[in-house]
Structure formats: C-alpha cells, structure tokens
Amino acid sequence: MFESLLVANRGEIAVRVIRTARRLGIRTIAVHSTADADAPHVALADEAVELGPEPPAQSYLDVDAVLVAARRTGAQAVHPGYGFLSENPAFARRVAAAGLVWVGPDPESMERVSDKIDARNLMAAAGVPVAAGTEEPCADLEEAVRAVAEIGYPVMVKPSGGGGGIGMAVVEDETALRAAFDTARTRSSRFFGSDRILLERYIPRARHVEIQVLGLADGRVVALGERDCSVQRRHQKVIEETPSPGVGDELRRRMIDGAVRAAAAVGYRNAGTVECLVDPERQEFVFLEMNTRLQVEHPVTEMTFGVDLVEAQLLIAAGKPVQFEPDDLRPDGHAIEFRVYAEDPVRFLPSPGTLTEWVEPTGEGVRVDAGYRAGNTVSRSYDPLLAKLVVHGADRDEALARSRAAVAAFRISGVRTNLPFLAELLDAPEFVSGRYDTTTVPRLRG
Amino acid sequence: MMEVTSELAATVWKVEVAPGAPVQEEDTLLVLESMKMEIPVLAEGAGVVREIRVQEGDSVEEGDVLLVLE
C-alpha cells in the first residue's frame, strides 16, 4: 500500500477522503487556493500546499501546480475526489507518468465513456438498454430536425461532452428545437470545448436512478445497489436515497446486471456509477451515462452496505483485494442524503458569504460530511455545496423521521441555505409518498 | 428611469445590450455568474438602455446597480 496520498480537491469531499486515509495510517497532503487557507480540509491533512489564487483554473484545475505539490511533498498517490480534475484522462496520465498511483479508473476507460454519444453506442453494443437517440452528433439544425422525426418528441438536447445539466433542454416540438439547438451548441462549446450535441428521446416523469459499481483489482465488477437521485433542481441533485422507492426487485436485478455489463464493457477498475433513467410505471430503464469517479452521493451506499467506498478505492488503486467479501454484500435499512447548498431556498440563487454560525446535527443514524465551519468564507468561485447530511434508518419511515429532526437541528448563518427547502420537501406528500420524479421540484416551485 | 440591480454576489459574465439599445420586457440584459451557475438578468419592462455601469469580468455585490433603463 502507498504510504502518502495527495487529495486534489477541496470542500467536503477532500475532508471525507482525508479522514479515511488517516484512519488507514496514510500520510495526507491537502492542496488549496489562497481563498481556502482556513478550510477544514487544509486543517485536517498532515501537510498542505497552496496551489494558487481563488479561480479554479489557477489552483484546483492547474495540473502542473498539483503535480509540483505532489513531488515536493513526496506523495505516492493522488485521489481526485469528484469534479475538478477527477474525470480528466490527461491528468490521470500525467499522474501515472510522474510515477504516482492514480486513485481512479484507467484513463482509457474514462475516455471510452466520457462522450455521451460514444458511451451510448458502446452500451447498446454491450446489450445495455438505451433510449432512442442520435448515434452521431447532429451537424446542424436541419439534421437535428430530421433526426427527431425518427426519434419522436419530446426530445432532450444535450451537450455530448457535458455534465451538470449545463446546456440541456427538453423540447416538445420543432419550434422549440430550433430555439434550443444553437443555445445548446454555444453553451457546449463554452463549457466543454466541444459542440457535439446528442438528441435523445425524453421520458416524461422519469426517475433518475444510478447503480454503484466497483471494478476490483482482480478484474471482477461488483454492484452495490442503486441510488435514486430524482429530486433535482436545474438538473442538479438535491436529495438521494437508497433503496429507490420506484424500483422493484425485478427491475433492480436487471439494472444491476446492465450496470455490471456496462462497466465490464470498458474494463472498468475502481469506483464508478452507471446512471439510468427509470420509467416507474413500466418498470423499464435506459442507460444515461457513466461517471468515472466517486459520486457526491456515495455515502447513502456506504450507510446501507456498511462499507467505506474510499477505502475500497485506495485498496483497488494499490492492486489489493477490497476490505470485504464482495459476494457477502447485503444492504441494510434505508439511507437518504440531503445536499445543503449556499442558495436561497425559494429561487435557488447562489448565496456566497462568510459563515457566522455552523452547528451540525447529531443523533442516531446521522452523518454530516461538511466542507466548511464557522468563520469560513463561501466563495463565489466554487460550487454551492456546503455539506451533505446523510441519515440512516431501519426503514424509510424511520429515515424520514430522523431526517426531519436533523434538518431542523442544522444551524447555518451568514449565507442563505436551502435547509428550509429541504424541510419543505420532507413535508411534501409527493416526496414522503416516494412517488416523486425529476419534475417534482420544478412543479413545487412552479 | 429604472436602475437594474444585482440580486446576488456574482461576476459579470456577459453584457448583452449596448447603451441606447431599445429592450422589450423579458429581454436578457446581461448574464451574471456565481458558484458555477449562469444567472440571466432580464428586463422587467420595455425601455431604452441609458447607461451600463459594469463591464464583463467585474465583481458585483447584492444590490449593486448594473445598468439603467429609461
């Protein structure tokens, strides 16, 4: 096993990775921008290196600065967290070329699924169901119009190289397609450096459900159940839970089989997630995309399966067997994660500022993964995730009851947060019944 | 005359109008960016752009005047 680890990230995920590494006796190195000098991940690590100024391009995304930090501190491995450089195969190659262990999948696997069009075609060939859609990028608007004549409306317009909901639009007819297509192309070029656009049949009132996979060092792929991520605002997740209230046992078996097939098709190693859309009425699913990193919402899986996924990642990266017997994995109870964002709870507008109060809830089954504490500044340069509140119960009702108490007890001042919105969701019949889908939040907010 | 102010602390990503330009209700005047999110600022009514107080790349605070319509 490597003896030191640089965590190339910030916020709650850097804290979370450092915690596990320290528990395993691995020396930890944090990196940070000038804005994050007082951040918890810096305080928790054995060593910390300042990368550069606040803008991510000059600090957390600066590959050379990260590698210099690794060399100077004698780091033997690099964990990228999620976001930033985590899904950048060029960075993974640079890490390996510097003689360091990359805690993630092979760059070749990352590349094969990084483009949504390529990934769809690959999965279809491997026997994983995909929605009707374009097998090649649409060259222009007229080609898009012709393609949709075959796919049928409504259609989702998506940047093929994108993520985070940026540039995505649902169109119901040709007029809307004409309006959306160029906007999607412009955004796609700006944010992702590619104007490849995918058109895919849109499933109204679908649930967004994903399967956690682990590609083991011996080449086996195992699945650790699903996470339902349908509660979203602006195509970004707000609440995730497992098991999904909309997935029956038979569908779950098919999804797990599909996810394992998908990961095996690219020779996947380490932790990954296969995202799917589920039609709850028909109990059918289609492949959406594969995320080649640790997912934000991985703790709900950890709480039901009783495993530390970061520990598994580190072991796999070191070429070792994981800490559990994969065939013996059984989930227990129900877990729900709430993303606590620095944003107003009505319109979800970002709310940067300085935190004057930070009191986390505690209690049976309650876990908080936080990236901030009182006195920290929440910068407008980074994403608005402040913390993840994760709650476990013997069943969904117990998890919901504990969640209500925990959300009420979480006290954050100095910035506006979505905690009141989370409390509202916990009382909304549609969420409480479990019969929610990706349109639930937009409908609640009209 | 109407001052258009920022609803949040953000960076000015794009100014979509020029001084003297006529605008309709719901037209995008400029686009702010904060916490990895684009926030368009729309005209609340028809008018003419009289003055633009910010440039692309500027930091603005909540309540800062971005431009003036009349």
TrEMBL record, chain A:
Listed EC numbers: 6.3.4.14
Superkingdom field: Bacteria
InterPro entries hit by this protein: ATP-grasp, BC-like_N, Biotin_carboxylase_complex, Biotin_carboxylation_dom, Biotin_COase_C, CPAse_ATP-bd, PreATP-grasp_dom_sf, Rudment_hybrid_motif
GO molecular function: ATP binding; biotin carboxylase activity; metal ion binding
UniProt entry tagged with the keyword Cytoplasm: no
Keyword terms, alphabetized: ATP-binding, Biotin, Ligase, Nucleotide-binding
SMART domains linked: Biotin_carb_C, GARS_A
Domain Biotin carboxylation, first and last residues per copy: 1-446
PANTHER family, sorted: CARBOXYLASE:PYRUVATE/ACETYL-COA/PROPIONYL-COA CARBOXYLASE, METHYLCROTONOYL-COA CARBOXYLASE SUBUNIT ALPHA, MITOCHONDRIAL-RELATED
Name of the protein: biotin carboxylase
Organism annotation: Nakamurella leprariae
UniProtKB/TrEMBL annotation, chain B:
Protein name: Biotin/lipoyl-binding carrier protein
One Pfam assignment: Biotin_lipoyl
Keyword terms, alphabetized: Biotin
Keyword Transcription regulation among UniProt keywords: no
Domain named Lipoyl-binding: residues: 1-70
Organism superkingdom: Bacteria
CDD domains (UniProt xref): biotinyl_domain
